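Q&A log
Question type: sequence-to-structure
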Amino acid sequence: MRIYKVGGAVRDRLLGKPVTDIDWVVVGATTEEMLAKGFRPVGADFPVFLHPKSGEEYALARTERKSGRGYGGFTFHASPEVTLEEDLIRRDLTINAMAEDDQQNLTDPYHGQRDLEARLLRHVSPAFAEDPLRVLRVARFAARYAALGFTVAPETLELMRQLSESGELEALTPERSWKEISRALMEDQPQVFVEVLRACGALKVLMPEVDALFGVPQPPAHHPEIDTGAHTLGVLQQTAIHKQPLTVRWACLLHDVGKGLTPEEEWPRHIAHEFKGLKLIKAVNERFKVPRDCQELAVLVGEYHTHGHRAFELKPSTLLELLQSFDVYRRPQRFEEFIAACEMDARGRKGLEERSYPQADYLRGAATAARSVAVQPLLEKGFKGPELGEAIKRERLKALKAYKEAASA
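Response status: OK
Response body:
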């Protein structure tokens, strides 16, 4: 039995980056031997075990072959005869196909170290094309390591293009796709994820609503970058710079999809794009079975982001409707995330990344003013049921009028 550290832990140590998760591969062992040493089995499809003390994952060396469509369409074979090189060749990228023994002796049969130095994301073998999930994984690694100068090797991008055109991407489950998308959006340069998917044709398969934004112009007075797709990438980049949570990043990716529906003869204006985009946002949310908090914020940001930009112009009654839509009284955090998304949208414009966004504090102040209305005095006056609701609404409107007047003074 020989045990090796593999994959990301080796890659990140060689890059000088912090190593978080460690994966191990065990060569020359049987399931029975692993169980005898106290390892606990966890893999339903292939032999993976948890270490009795550290809890880290140890997998028996295995080979695999394509037996069906999609991510799950593989037959695995694990036995003591499978070599380390045979195990490594089934991995996606050369930089993930290196192994180390306990003395840090490197096993690198597919030149991963060379590609690390060349800053290339290159597939290990033609078997890469058997797993459509790897298109998303490579795009995610591109987003993670873009700051270090990594790019996708041309021949790997070509294989990704073939996969995108083959129909295999449609076989991916929503859960697997969302896992990769959500992880990619939380990388340091999430816009690179979208760029790589677009470069290999995967974006128009997975998210045609976002792909349709490229080449669609906007008024240069408001959007110096002009192209709506370029703007979306800039907004995504701002979400990473400002360390926004996943909810905000997802909402920002989808906030302008309605502009992809504008007839060419109406360009560069996009009248009612907020309303037109709602059905598209809901369709993308459903396609990837997106978590509810991300779904809800994306829909609300899509519908109301221009309200955020025009905050100072909104009538008190419109302000109140906006606050009610977000349920700021019970869910203040969601409104805070909406404000963040609006600010990222404003900053995601070429040359305007550093411009202040005073609407943020104004909107926060409006929410505070509405929340400050006390219910108890109205109860003491005898209001109840629907009448109480109307009385609270009147008082909140009065508070917002006073707030707007004070802010304008």
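Response note: Residues 372-409 form one domain.
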